[in-house]
Fold this sequence. Notes:
With about 575 residues, the chain is an alpha+beta fold. The protein has 3 domains: about 1-205, Arp2/3 complex 21 kDa subunit ARPC3; about 225-375, Beta-Lactamase (2-Layer Sandwich); about 445-565, Histidine kinase-like ATPase, C-terminal domain (Heat Shock Protein 90), CATH 3.30.565.10. Helices cover about 60% and strands about 15% of the residues. It contains 17 helices and 14 strands. The strands form 4 sheets. It has a 5-stranded antiparallel beta sheet, with helices on both faces. A 5-stranded mixed beta sheet has the order 9-11-12-14-13, with helices on one face. A hairpin with a 2-residue loop joins strand 6 and strand 7. Helix 13 (about 400-415) runs antiparallel to helix 14.
Amino acid sequence: MGNSTIEIVEVHLSIILVQRIAIIAVFAYVLSHTRAFRLLFKETTTGREKLALIFIFSLISIAGTYFGIPIEGALANVRDTGAIAAGLLAGPLVGTATGVISGLHRIYLGGFTAVQCGIATIIGGVIAGYVHMRIKPKTSEWITGVIIGVSVIMLSMGLILVFAKPYEAAWSLVSLVAVPMSLANAIGIAVFMIIIHNAKEHQTQIAALQTHKALKIANATLPHFRQGLNPISAEKVAANILTMTSAAAVAITDLERVLTHIGRGSDHHAQGMRVFTKLTKACLAQQQVTVAQTQAEIGCTEPACPLKSAIVVPLYCRDELVGTLKIYYAREEALTALDIEFAQGLGQVFGTQLELAALQHKAELTAKAELKALRAQINPHFLFNSLNTIVSFCRTNPENARNLLIELSEFFRRSLKTARDFVTLKEELEHVDSYLTLEQARFGSRLTIEHAIDPDTLDIFIPAFTLQPLVENAVKHGLLAKIDGGTIKILAQIIGRQVEISITDNGQGIPATIQKQILEYGFGKGAGVGLTNVNERLKAIYGPKHALAIDSVEGQGTTVLLHIPIDMEVMVNG
């Protein structure tokens, strides 16, 4: 056969093979636009998904064989496209399995080059899978595919030349089909890889949108779950999810009852009902995500229920199961892997929000317990000292004793009244004044009081029993150790959105060696207990940045500084 004849045959074969590969490319394009096929391409796949990929790529590869053109007792074909694409896209297991299936099929068909071509296809699937495992190709997948495709064709041609007999027939065949098969398979692999790559990119975009949606829902539901898991918070959260998704209904339960059900089916999936669907009971029993793709799998007892598929996600708080999140859809077989991952993500976010709510509640309870403990500790101590002072005035100055008794009763009346968590600064200062009046009666001219209070601060709410312990600490541990006593200054002013309050004494100060530890619990076995208690309550209520600040110079005095946020919600609830 002359060179010109060979060239004509090569061109003719190339055109036909490219036409055949176009059919495979169209098939790949249609597949790439099906949701089920796109979901098969992800970082980790199940055994069932791998089997599905092996079936699809083996079908493509075998079709490439049947699309082949008989020539000189052999087939010019595009079989290797399927095996190589399988390995590059889905890894060594899928690539090897596809290569073995399609290669053995080629050997089964027979022909004087069947064994060599079949072995080459098997090797192509193995190599492509190895390349996927080693270099994880991304944007340049098609280039890698072209190189491997041409290499496998050349390997196949080499095997034919070495092992096929007679040699003259083998050489004639190779000279005719090497270039057309290399060209067609290279184009097929490149087109196939680009199509699948675009499909994967599309899937990534969908996943990103799902993540964005989950974050929006998490942000919208955070204020509600701060109140814990209850019918009110559950209803608001479910309404947010229903608004932001394509779900037909959303429900939230505790371990026994439906806290809320928003959307379709609310006539028989009613708030307050005991959990009754088979799917939800399975989720609570297994403590894992359960999925129903059909109405029968949901297990609703209402035959006309409009809910056809559902995802039920367990809700945890501190590793303890507390309820479920249920997302329903109006169509059967409507759930994808992304929908399930989206629901799982919401469940994890809601669990974190519930845990934060529990921690906040615990901090509030701790603050209340500390406040009660401080009252129980200080009031008896102060009472005994005040009564001793009043007794000493009963004979020498009965009128003063009478006034002090009135002041003492006023002090304890306010102590009982301030069982509230928050009081106005004015009320707290009146409480402090009652205390200081009694202390001045004890220590006379040794104790001087100065005030600098911005009138705009008087109606702002602060935690109850905050200033009196600080003032008492200044009197007892700052001034009384000095023979000539000293002065206490109380300052309150608004700075930005905060009230700054300072209590300053010119007493003995705090030794530098213990200043860093003075606010720690239990330090001093009584010395500084008021400071530590107030400090911990402020941190529990407002956060660590609102801890007390102490500035003290030994022998010169101490200033205790606190900053109270101007919080309208606290003012109302006070």
